[in-house]
Inverse folding.
């Protein structure tokens, strides 16, 4: 089978509007999935809340030299 450049068969047929709508719906779904994954990664990267210090150790710092 020979394919030549410029043949009308190679041009996409977008005259059917339902194809464009379906592609747009799939793209939107993909973007939402990627956004959800990005949010999960951001939340997983947040450091855990540090424990509160116990006792007086480290509360008084001598800043005089």
């Amino acid at each position: 089978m020979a394919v030549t450049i410029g043949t009308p068969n190679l041009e996409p047929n977008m005259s059917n509007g339902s194809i464009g709508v379906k592609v747009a719906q799939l793209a939107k779904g993909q973007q939402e999935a990627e956004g959800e994954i990005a949010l999960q990664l951001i939340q997983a990267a947040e450091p855990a809340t540090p424990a509160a210090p116990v006792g007086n150790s480290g509360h008084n710092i001598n800043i005089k030299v």
Q: What stands out?
A: The helical segments are 17-45. The mean pLDDT is 77.
